Amino acid sequence: GALGALGWVYAIREAATSNLRKLVERFGQDWAQGTIVPKVLAMATDPNYLHRMTTLFCINVLSEVCGQEITTKQMLPTVLRMAADAVANVRFNVAKSLQRIGPILDSRWGDVTPLWGQP
């Protein structure tokens, strides 16, 4: 087919995160905080690095629909812990996630980009 294996992985991931967004928009932040967010954050310590990467992709989407408080209090600490991951690709995606969720964070965090140096 036109899509290689990585293309399919990307397509499935995009569809899943799009559905995640729609679910939270439909059922609300409280539902997400009690149902989805704990499951996503639990994957951050999964032995399979692909599952850890999925945590970051989900956090990127969830932060947009769950808002500042849930992102700052629940998701950010997980992302920051993942910065020490043994897999370089996970660490790289932590940097991308911080860039993505940075504007959503509580202003007391300020600009998170200095944590990663200049682009």
From TrEMBL:
Naming one, the record's GO cellular component terms include: protein phosphatase type 2A complex
Q: Which PROSITE patterns match?
A: HEAT_REPEAT
InterPro entries named among the record's database cross-references: ARM-like, ARM-type_fold, HEAT, HEAT_type_2, PP2A_Regulatory_Subunit_A
- An MF annotation (GO) of this entry: protein phosphatase regulator activity
Extent of the HEAT repeats: 36-74, 75-108
SUPFAM superfamilies this protein is in? ARM repeat (SSF48371)
Which Pfam families does the entry link to? HEAT
Q: Which UniProt keywords apply?
A: Repeat
Domain of life per record: Eukaryota
Q: Does the keyword Repeat apply?
A: yes
Q: Could you tell me the Gene Ontology terms of the biological process aspect for this record?
A: chromosome segregation
Asked if the record carries the keyword Chaperone, the reply is no
The protein here is known as: TOG domain-containing protein
State the species of origin. Phasianus colchicus
